[in-house]
């Protein structure tokens, strides 16, 4: 696939998921202020990389991405709730997110906590609401189980806890990977695996997608750590060097910058190897993999 | 049913759900500290009225309560997460809950937020994990949909928002009921309706159970308001008169104490009328209704 093909794909599905997010929250029969707080962070932009991964996986099977709209929206709701809660004063205490004031800066802490809770809760409802013709009921239950695992104590929340506990400590590479695999990796991996489950993949293929997503997730995080040191503040939307300032262990701090770049390259290669081992149309997934390796924000 | 019968029922199912909660959280593959924070609040006691309602509803159909163990545990997880988040400094800022230090007082705010998030997330996983022989997959999806509605922006979270916005304002009775129906009523009602759904109730019966639960929920809240003014601090586990001190509109403040007692009685009567209109064994549900009307904590 050429760049034009990917740009078309990306634009189409970003618009699709953003329209769905807006519509599904707006129509809730709930106090206006909580809907505004939910929408503020859902609409704060971002690359929508998780939904795009899900849509691209469906397309790899020759399926329409639209089949996965509910799951894609649910993942973005979970991702967004985690950002809102992570930014809170008692957590990372961030004032800015993607260059905009964080949720609690605009709506206050209580609303930010509740908007996160509401998004988290709604994500499961959205998946259950998918039509049974599009997604068999048994698959919906699997999607819900795996989403909860990826985002709860055994996944993202567990990673956030380990991240907090690791602050100010010198972590080993294993400890750092535990954090990243849980804090960001599991939900990224879920995005791909959910697409494959909706497409009706067999277990062998699901495993290959899991391997792909594992390496993609680590590549994503290594790139994040590199950007924190070398990125352009205007583009990444937060202060450069904030990890160092917060005494955070990162890939560059453990491996040197050169070592981090090398590790990034290895994970990208392993991710693509996994894609090449499938007999599927994985061109868009490869584009996304390159995007992750080279992104500047 | 006599008092002895109810005591036996209550003891049996409290133990059942408490053992399930402990076991299911303990076996999570997650950092020890987050499991401790989750268990601390899950094990803080309480009447377990929501699980008991669910089990009693199943027994009304002549079904074993055990069929509903996952749903009962999920409800208690949601209820517990909501207490942890409501107690936070940016919300109600409570130091005590059931006479014990609140979650954030013991584990700190960040952990309290994350323990709540993890419990909320896990609740959906627990329902999905029920065996398909016990609960057909289609019913599990319904249970998940309705749990999300009862606890999210259209339910409990919406009620909490309305409650916060109403603080210090003179509310009308309609506004006060909106708050209670959403903040506590929907999850109480869900407990009953979930039991009926698992038992395979038809729509007509589901509606009768909804009516029962609606009145039970309002009775519960009116009793709560009365206890806040007349309760024994040692027994209710928090300061008497705290609503008044916080300028909160309550049933006694809107209706006078006499009016509140009258309204409590009316809702209890309507709740029992709904039970009497079913051709089911609703004795235990009536016991719980009396318990709600007369409880002293």
From TrEMBL, chains A, B:
Cofactors named for this entry: Mg(2+)
Enzyme Commission identifier(s): 2.5.1.-
Keyword Transferase among UniProt keywords: yes
Enzyme class, first EC level, given as a word: transferase
Family matches, as SUPFAM superfamilies: Terpenoid synthases
Record PROSITE patterns: POLYPRENYL_SYNTHASE_1, POLYPRENYL_SYNTHASE_2
GO molecular function, one term: transferase activity
InterPro entries: Isoprenoid_synthase_dom_sf, Polyprenyl_synt, Polyprenyl_synt_CS, Prenyl_diphosphate_synthase
Keywords for the protein's UniProt record, in alphabetical order: Isoprene biosynthesis, Magnesium, Metal-binding, Transferase
Pfam families: polyprenyl_synt
Family note: Belongs to the FPP/GGPP synthase family.
PANTHER family assigned: FARNESYL DIPHOSPHATE SYNTHASE
Protein name: Polyprenyl synthetase family protein
Species of provenance: Robertmurraya beringensis
